[in-house]
């Protein structure tokens, strides 16, 4: 299959990136991060989570984040909602899209959302219904699509089963997530092919954590299966609180460098993304995990 002409990059740094930061990230930094990313041209952004603050304390101020940002027309602001309580908070905050997040592995489902896969789908049904009634876009994420920290290998058929259920719930997009970043290109091709049999491939997104450094290859493999939506996190921020050792998402700068180099449009300014990567790394006192970001900044300084 030919590569897409346009790829939608969903920026997940403000949510997936920051949720794992141990120290207190000031509200003003969370807000400025979103503003900078949107100014760089990001079309779709995860701005926060309406989850239990006891489970993910860093996201406890998501309502304040949503209230503090200026909303650019045409940009989709998305938040995580595991249940109706979260959904109600998301509506009050004016979210454009809510994300229900399940898993292809039973153990991870228990650890992350404290219920089985079947129970999670039951819990998501009223959220989906409420989202449709309120005209809010619904998205579904499938964790552990390429491996589970507790169970090891995960069968593509298990991923496809959850994808099918998410489609039936009316998800506009379904994310195939490599939570712990263990998948390799051949495996990604198989999982995307299996999901593509039950869900229109235009609705499928790749969400790759970069623990083993495979994300860029995995993105190319997924594009060969027709996938044209990918998630990334500026400066490679993040990790997963319920998947020890997992690193952040693939860095947005690295994905943009790959895609633009292949002649694929994203509408995002790579230089502005690299500046934002440096800015947030400095604010958080952490290293900038984007190889392309660091190289671009070094080249600019040398010029
Ligand atoms: P539970 O303890 O089974 O829920 O947790 P509960 O209904 O029994 O409620 C327990 C307490 O939580 C109650 O408070 C509720 O009010 C409160 P208490 O009465 O004890 O004071 N509560 C809430 N508070 C705020 N917002 C809510 C909410 N719901 C209940 N929405 C629950 C179940 C799902 C709530 C919990 O397990 C949870 O919040 N999990 C979220 C975990 C999470 O956010 N993980 C990270 C995001 S997913 C991810 O990163 C993966 C992804 O990136 C893809 C990938 O890479 O794989 C998307
Ligand atoms: Mg993730």
Tell me about this structure.
This protein is α/β, with parallel strands linked by helices and 303 residues long. Helix content is 44%, strand content 15%. The protein has one domain (8-302): Aldolase class I (TIM Barrel), CATH 3.20.20.70. The chain has an eight-stranded parallel barrel, surrounded by nine helices. Helix 4 links the parallel strand 3 (76-80) and strand 4. Helix 3 (62-68) packs parallel to helix 4 (84-93). 54% of the residues are buried. Bound molecules: 3-hydroxy-3-methylglutaryl-coenzyme A (HMG) and magnesium ion. The site of magnesium ion has 6 residues, from loops.
Write a brief caption for the model.
By secondary structure, the protein is α/β, with parallel strands linked by helices. Helix content is 44%, strand content 15%. The protein starts with 7 loop residues before the first strand and ends with a helix.
* Small molecules bound: 3-hydroxy-3-methylglutaryl-coenzyme A, magnesium ion
The CATH superfamily is known as Aldolase class I
Estimate percent helicity: 40-55%
For the sheet with most strands, the description reads: 8 strands, parallel, barrel
Order of helices and strands: EHHEHEHEHHEHEHEHEHHH
Fold topology:
Layout (H helix, E strand, L loop, with lengths): L7 E4 L1 H5 L9 H13 L4 E6 L12 H7 L7 E5 L3 H10 L3 E7 L2 H8 L3 H18 L2 E7 L12 H13 L4 E6 L6 H12 L7 E5 L6 H10 L4 E4 L19 H10 L8 H15 L6 H12 L1
Parallel strand pairs: 1-2, 1-8, 2-3, 3-4, 4-5, 5-6, 6-7, 7-8
3-hydroxy-3-methylglutaryl-coenzyme A binds next to helix 4, helix 5 and strand 5.
